[in-house]
Amino acid sequence: MTASIPHGATQVAPSGPLVVTAHQGTLSSVTVTTHENAPVPGAMDPDGRRWTTTAPLAFGTTYRVQAVAHNAESVPSVPLNSTFSTVVPKEELTVDRTRPSDGDTVGVAMPVSIYFSRPVADRAAVESRLSVEPSVPTEGSFHWMSDEQVNWRPREFWKPGTSVRVRARLYGVDAGGGVMGTADHESGFVVGRDQRAVGDVNRHVVTVFQDGQQIRELPASFGRKVYPTQSGIHVAFEKHTSTRMRSDTWGGPRKGEPGYYDEVLPHAVRISNNGEFVHVNAATVGQQGRANVSHGCVNLSPANGKWFFDFVQIGDPVEIVGSDRPLTPQDGDIPDWTIPYDDYVKGSALYQPR
User: Fold this and answer.
1) Beta carbons of 324 and 254 less than 8 angstroms apart
2) Which residue of 25, 41, 160, 166 is 20 to 30 Å from 304, comparing CA positions?
3) How far apart are CA 101 and CA 80, in angstroms?
4) pLDDT value for 102
5) Residues 6+ positions from 310 with CB-CB distance below 8 Å
6) Residue 146's CB: how many other CB atoms inside 10 A?
């Protein structure tokens, strides 16, 4: 007989079960207790050769393992009697939150983001305990945005109607530097309608598609030459019935400088972290469809802006074309689609060149 955790082992990470195995014969009895004599539950395989704990091992605990086996003639073995102790974590690692949140319905461009409670030193160890499980086969990859955030995106946009489970089996994982995972996390979301918007800065229009069919063409005004709306695939990730906009919050003109603004505007859909929104601006209706006069946002009329606001889902792609300034990974809260997929996969801690 052997136990999967050796006798006398210390600082054991409780990331997996304890398994007692009879290599010849079958197990007669297995008893596992803590140092306080609390029993540890387990289950025997039908053939009687393996016994496995059915509850996670605890941190900072000493365990005693006692087992007896017998052969075909019912002759008992020499008893197994061993002890081991588990590690006491210096710091704890948990999932702080995920995006999408549990139960959300999102657009086809929304990646998965997992935010951790503290920086991760051993990214490979942690990533090996993460999974994104779509209801339909979907190629995708993890990509570390920082030590505290890892994203997962499909190679192509999601298929509408896909259900996705996100699991982080962090309990017991050694994340490096004395940091241990202390709780698992699970959430799920659904991919909603396939709807997309394409903003053409040269034609001064936003064309809206649903299920591959064009359904609206909205006159718009984009960023003027000095403040161009950036080209590339943006993702709608916030909706505000009204929001205060100040040019100095994204690096634009400061108070007292030409072009400075500080105003509250309605029906604003944020598409990047560098100040870009699709929003209503009644003051530029005369230029919408004709000229680009904004500081980088996409301006729509009150009627069109309200329609777009009501229509758009969080996670819908908003692609800007015709601008000579590209969107970069530094510009957005969701930069995933600015990174070519062949480069994106290299951001996984488990990436292996083919």
Assistant:
1) no
2) 160
3) 47
4) 97
5) none
6) 10
Instruction: Outline where the chain has alpha helix (H).
Output: 123-127, 302-311, 341-344
Percent of the chain at pLDDT above 90? 86
Beta-bridged to residue 174, according to DSSP, are 180
Read off the pTM. 0.89
Do the beta carbons of residue 148 and residue 234 sit within 8 Å?
A: no
Average pLDDT, the chain: 94
Collapse the DSSP code of 76 into the 3-class scheme (helix H, G, I; strand E, B; otherwise coil) and give the result: strand
Strands (E) across 105-169 are located at 105-106, 112-116, 130-134, 140-146, 149-154, 163-168
pLDDT of residue 55: 94
How far is 37 from 17, CA to CA, in rounded Å?
A: 19
Residues 325 and 248 sit within 8 Å (Cβ to Cβ): no
At residue 250, does pLDDT exceed 70? no
Query: How far, in Å, are 18, 180, 265, 354 from residue 14 at the CA level?
Result: 9, 10, 53, 33
* Rounded (5°) CA angle 347-314-227: 75
Active centre residues (catalytic) = 279, 297
Question: What kind and span of H or E run contains 81?
Answer: strand 80-85
Q: What pairs with residue 179 in β-bridges?
A: 91, 176
Give CA–CA dist 352/340, Å, rounded: 17
- Could you report the per-residue pLDDT of 282-315, keeping only the tens digit for each? 999 999 999 999 989 999 999 999 999 999 999 9
